[in-house]
């Protein structure tokens, strides 16, 4: 079965691996996020950093959701520095996908070696593609 945004996801992961090889684990999430922006720019991959998405409930504006990166208007990318991914990270990305309307989020964990990575799909895509 074909993966959603397989080529773009591969390019993002390659950029993150390059960063981790250079900087090594142990820095803050924001450092890796900024480095990822530099790497994506050098690779000609478009992205938006810290874009605000309004969150509404029953017509009332609750505030904003601000993902780390939205790459090529297709993939939410969230940098992490954690011992391991847990269900809370998955739940957070599902919320982000719901609010943004995008289908795929990519978690990148720079704390572990080699780079930790996880693809999160909106539920309606889980039965179609992995």
Q: Quick recap of the structure?
A:
With 130 residues, this protein is α+β, with helices and mostly antiparallel strands. It is built from 4 helices and 7 strands. Helices cover 38% and strands 27% of the residues.
Account of the protein in words:
The chain has 130 residues and is of the alpha+beta class. It has one domain (6-126): Trna Endonuclease, Chain: A, domain 1 (3-Layer(aba) Sandwich). 38% of the residues lie in helices and 27% in strands. The strands form two sheets. Strands 1-4-5-6-7 form a five-stranded mixed β-sheet, sandwiched between helices. It has a two-stranded antiparallel ribbon with strand order 2-3. A hairpin with a 6-residue loop joins strand 6 (104-109) and strand 7. It is globular and about 45 Å long. The N and C termini lie close together (7 Å).
